[in-house]
Amino acid sequence: MTSRRKLLIIAALGLTIIILFMISMATGVSKLSPFEVIQTLLGMGSSKQHLILFEFRLPRMLLSICIGIGLAVSGCILQGVSRNDLADPGILGINAGAGLAIVLVLLFFGGLGSAPAWLMPIIAFGGAIAAMALVYGLSYKRGHVTSATRLVLTGVGVGSGLLAASTALSLRLSEEQYRLISIWLAGNVWNASWLSVAITVPVIVILFGFVFYKSRVLNAITLGDDMALGLGVNINRQRLLFLLIAALLAGVCVAAGGNIAFVGLIGPHVARSLVGSNHKYLLPTSALCGAILVLLADTLGRIILQPMEVPTGIIVAIIGAPYFLYLLMRAKN
Amino acid sequence: MSKGTQITTKNNYVKAVWTILIGIVLLLFAVALSISLGAANFDLATVWQAIFAPDMSLLPHQIIWELRLPRVLVAVIVGAALSVAGAIMQGVTRNPLADAGLLGLNAGSGFAIAICFAFFPAMSQLGLLAASFVGAGISLLLIYGISAAARGAFTPAKLVLVGASISMLMIAISQAIALYFNLTQGFAFWTAGGVAIVTWDQLAFVTPFIVIGLLLAVLLSRSITVLSLGEKMAIGLGQRVGLVKILSLLVVLILAGASVSLVGAVGFVGLLIPHIVRHFVGSDYRYIIPCSAVLGGLFLVLADFGARMINAPYETPLGAVVALIGVPFFLHVVRKDIKGI
């Protein structure tokens, strides 16, 4: 496949996001036609249109796009580093770690409402990194991760342990807090505010830029330890760096949108079938596929049970789980 | 068969008998402990009197009969049922990671419970039990269907991943229902896993199923041993493999479905106990199945006792206590070099 064709695919995915954005704006309880959107963006809409676009829809959609990008890139890194197509922050227990950290804060400090908003991503990141350290530490054997499958199974085990702990602790919360945490754990983007956009967008943009800049190193790691050493890559240091970035990306996304699984699995998978496995193209394509998935899930969640909103994470799981099962059924080994 | 194997088999028979005898003694001890200690402590004489010469005008006797006894009995039968179900699944699928929780049965049951809470809020406790049974069955059939339709060998890792994704799907739909109908902690308590709220009625409803399931398991144990040697070997030995597989699926459905409907999401028991038992009595399911039943009952009584005592007077969900022990064990199994991982 020529690189021009790959760029065309990337451009087409970008266009899809814009179209999806317009569709999303034109559906739901409060609608804006594409023309009205452009008018409002140019500062010529009514004050009501201004309110709908800038206060409700825009932050939420920007956040959805960011979460999609972050989770898909995190999955892409994990899959490259562990050389395992099944790696995903949700499956590796990283989301569960971030979730447990949030439950603990809710339990001991009585609420997130009173805590400063920038604290959430930091706490979630702490939980995510602790979970990942646990999973990697436990799957190390004789000095190196011997089997990628063992890594995934360890992730499933650690994830279910952390989830059990979260469930046990969340039963102690008050009814109101419990409702808050269950909505949060289900994965939702609807509490999006410009503040969380201001925290999330720069982090995702910077991390994505950095990973994209280092996509050659990721390519080398994917080729195997020997090959990477031959190419002059300090494999252990680079691997650790990438893992840290993957956890940071997942932690930030979980803090902003709750527990959303499968994006890190499906984004890179679809991307690989579109543009192959060179990370220079794979990373941006995964990011766009992830963004499309989350944006689509957010839009569907808003319109299928109107006026009630279904959390994004639930819709993503309902789309993602059957797709994953289909992949497992097709895979030879 | 060589002389060496015969001796091993005989040794294992002796070991199995000892495991069962010691297991039963420990089980009785654990039951007595669990009945006598708690928010109120009773001495063993009172426990004895309450059970064999009950006088319902006395408060201790009431507490023992209405709260402690049904609870401990549920722990015994559910522990036995989950362990035996796990042992059968591991034998038939030749998969060391098979377990009701890991295969998504708990999530299936939770899904059915969410539907009942939402659409039939007036449903009786027994109706909920039946629904939960059906939900667990749906998950089990999904797993079997997918593994039958899959291309290539179904490795332990794949089975766990299929189980994990079925769980995630079922949990997602349950959460959507729970949020839409504003079901709160009542639903969460049901699904978190515990034996605290079990009544005599529920116990009477489920026990016959579990007893029948356990008896069928013992009857099938010989065939399961043959099947666990490999399908080709089993056919060569003249076994009707298809029939044995269907019967074992049925037994797993009865045992695991009934258990999950009683206690909710308690995972890892079916993984943990058969592994430990295999360590004592070898790989013959005629020994593994009865030993798993006894040790599984013992394990769950102790776990439930722990769930009551860890943070008294609050109840810690049983599922969480079991996960505390089960997860490290699962990780240990994964760490060992298993064929197919």
UniProtKB/TrEMBL annotation, chain B:
GO terms for biological process: siderophore-iron import into cell. The chain crosses the membrane at residues 12-35, 69-88, 100-120, 126-147, 159-183, 203-225, 246-273, 285-305, 317-334. SUPFAM superfamilies: ABC transporter involved in vitamin B12 uptake, BtuC. Keywords: Cell membrane, Membrane, Transmembrane, Transmembrane helix, Transport. It is found in: Cell membrane. Its main location: membrane. GO terms for cellular component: plasma membrane. One of its GO terms (molecular function) is transmembrane transporter activity. Pfam families: FecCD. It is a multi-pass membrane protein. Belongs to the binding-protein-dependent transport system permease family. FecCD subfamily. This is Iron ABC transporter permease. It comes from Culicoidibacter larvae.
